Amino acid sequence: MCKPKEPHIKELEDSWTEWFQHLSSASSNLTLEHNYFDLEVVNVVAPQLQNLTIKFFHAKYVVSAPALSSLHYKGSSAMDLSTKGFPSLEKANICVCFPDYQDAHKIFHLLQQLHNVHILTLNLEVVEILSSSVELVLPQPSPFVNLKRLSIYPLKQYWPEKAPHKVAMSSQLKSYLLDGSPKCTYTIVLREVNM
């Protein structure tokens, strides 16, 4: 966290933190966008919280929200999440805009914590990173026993000369995502190359 030089800035940060804690504990919907205060850790203890949306608000998240039914995350790097689980989770949409190989472990850890989800949406770039890191999924059985629908979509379009080496979803990753839920419907939208 930034060290403020002016006392009134510290007071503003303290009052914002108090307001945020009060708001998050009483709300059923919470959206966090852009981390202007440069917070390193965000604690969300909200028994009533049902919908959590995080957009480009990078921090470590410690979330206690047993009623959470919907999680939407969009960021330039992987979400760093610590939770005891989300027993009521219906939908999760995870979009990492610029994943790299260092994000693979965090993404895999995040997926393990979403094991109760019924509808999971991932961007294709996340799948490509995980497919290139199969050592993470090889020894693991599928945790997704309630999964009804898995959707994978591309975030980026490429011109032919700039298209990255195409990585298909590895069979190990496909097994990890789908084997726990044999009746799961699976949709993948392939990336189009602009001509």
How would you describe this structure to a colleague?
This protein is α/β, with parallel strands linked by helices and 195 residues long. The protein has one domain (7-188). The chain has four helices and ten strands, in the order αβββββββαβαβαβ. The strands form two sheets. Strands 1-3-5-7-8-9-10 form a seven-stranded parallel sheet. Helix 4 (171-178) links the parallel strand 9 (149-153) and strand 10 (185-188). The longest helix is centred in the N-terminal third of the chain and has 20 residues, at 7-26. The radius of gyration is 18 Å and the shape is globular. The chain starts with 6 loop residues before the first helix and ends in a 7-residue tail after the last strand.
List the keywords.
195 residues, alpha/beta, 3-stranded parallel β-sheet, 4 helices, 24% helix, 26% strand
